[in-house]
Amino acid sequence: MTEKTPQPWIGLITKNIKEENGCIVASGLCFTRFINGKGKLDTKQVRIDVTSKENAAKISFGSRFGLPGPKSSRINTYRLEIDLDEARGFDIQNKLLVIYKDQYEGFIAYDVRDRRTGQNKNGPLFIHDGVTFYFRQNKYNRLVLTVRDTNRYDDPEEQKRLERAAKNAAALKDRDIIFMYEKHCAKYEESASVLYEKLIDMGCDNAFFVTDTSLPAVQALPEKYRKNLIEKDSDRHLEYFFASEKFISTETLEHALQLRVANKAAMDKINKDPLSYVFLQHGPTYMISLNKENRSGFLKKPWLKLHKTVVSSELEAQHFIELGGMERDDLYITGMAKFDRAFRNEGADRIVIMPTWRRWELNQAREDITQTGYYKMMRLMYDSVPDDLKDRVVILPHPLMAERFRGIAESGSSEDAEMCERILVTESYENVLRDTEVLLTDYSSISYDAYYRGAKVVFYWAEKDECMTHYGEDTKLMLNMDNVFGPVAMNGEDITAAVKECYGAPQRQDYLERYRKIIEFHDGRNTERIIEHLIADGVIEER
Question: Is residue 344 in some structural domain?
Fold first, then answer.
């Protein structure tokens, strides 16, 4: 039998968390021991890393080995501190890794009383210049430092609103609310809005859609669809969130309120309640493989009463089954609702540049977007478009990177002023896709949407393998040279040649055949098929 590698383990018994001298500091009592090992843990041989940085935190202990504790552990005092200025450049979520003698990796348990299961706990929030820092407990009871943009619910008064809404929701429990939304509860252009309108047409008066009601697409809606809209961040939004037991969305459950909200009542709702949740997808998931923890947001949640995912083909279904651990019964093999309404305008002539987001660069982008690999890649893409076609270029940052581009889109960069003029931050993605002739991307799922409408797609993969390492070991791109539905570029010259080849040309037959193995349905009946499943599963009533 292979001997297991020892894991250094620090379990926090008490925590006093505060800000001191520009650092977030946690101190108190802890246990130390080895998992899969024996002997005393020598605290002088311990350092604390995060994935993006060695010695990310300073840690000290009251004594070198501590005093005897239960089950071969030692009890000790500890002090952990992280410089907030340094932490601004960390990833969004940072598991604190215990490194022992430069070779063994373990972790810090947030609360020893919770053993191996997290209870959605978090420490106090520390807010500086639009950035919020806090320690939290992940689902495995590990200590994580979160570094993210400050949101409205970080405010103590907004936290009180959440608590009031959770109490007020009790009066709405018998309403059988179907809670629908798209990204950040701030869009109305994806599959959820298409399905919502169909449900209203059927007489499902208990279907409600949360969005920014000032959006032009919303303002243009007939009254029959507007009557069940709920304004994002309103009291009604919060109360319906806590009251609903049925959620249908293009996004994960976290988007139903506020992504990465630091509120236990809200996190318990998302991570504990036996909800019914139907994931419509905002784009086919046949891109980055589902076999890593940081892709777990797309996978089945065992505490949910019902969890179904819409997929577009047998091939995509196998991805969820083989790498995501799902059963066939967890999947609706129907095609995505938004494709029923997808079209391209006659005379579409735009060259659209849109790579997917890079989670590991999001905080760096806050400090200086022009120094990120994401920005430099977009600049290479733009520079490589043939000069006679540059006036057709539109640069569309991924939704999760868009805010980082807002300032530079408005003010421009001295070096890249011409390119910056072409950055669109607030434009509807639907409107842009309707005028797209060629899409230039890395591995964004928007490529499936663009190609469905008749556009051609050029993939830039020079940085693909390096990017995959940031998703975790053994992560791969499901697209490869045998199934990709467009030319693959590895440098600027390749991009230039591919854009010249694709612009104004019909879709190649071999690419079309590959595409239709991933996106099977083209009959305009995807929404009908989804509704049939919703009725069969009791999410909605047959009418």
Answer: no
